Amino acid sequence: MASKNTPPFIASNLAIDFINTQFGVGGEQQECLDDDSSVIAWLQQAGVLSEECESPPPGIVHIARELRDNMRELLISAQQGRAADPTVVNHVLERGYPLEKIEWQPTASAFQKKNYQRNMESESLLQPVASALVQLLTEEDLQLVKECEASDCVLLFHDQTKSHRRRWCSMASCGNRMKAAAHRARKKTST
């Protein structure tokens, strides 16, 4: 059964979107990865799993949650300039690395490199998410990974705007809500 909670795809980064599969404030926690099938559904929605998965690998939800927690810890630690243990991410990277092959492409009259999943095991399915984190941590400006400024939102996003002034996870939800609240507060103080 797929998750009843719709995962937010607002981060402009696969790794951050995966971290955002658990969100909320206090007792209002939302869990998008609530069973093995919901992990497969998320990977398909994220566009990293195009193959049909007749039955998800048993226990993928546990590995996915461990990976998500480790990814969050690594990201926060890196932003703060301190070390953290990458054991879970490294495990997924090591066990899930894709097979790399070259194939002749007649339309281009050239060989092209193609990557294929090693198998349909948990680590192989989650490997693209772990690789996205590696790219984020090693090739991107981590100061552009921000938390939504809405007081009741904990979603992260990768600010890729030209001015790097993005403040909310989504203008359609938190941005409009916060602007309306600020307008009401200004109106209240002026009366």
TrEMBL record:
InterPro entries: ABATE (IPR010852), ABATE_dom_sf (IPR023286), Znf_CGNR (IPR021005). Pfam families: ABATE, zf-CGNR. Residues 145-187 form the Zinc finger CGNR domain. Coiled coil: none annotated. SUPFAM superfamilies: Jann2411-like. It comes from the Bacteria. Transmembrane segments: none annotated. This is CGNR zinc finger domain-containing protein.
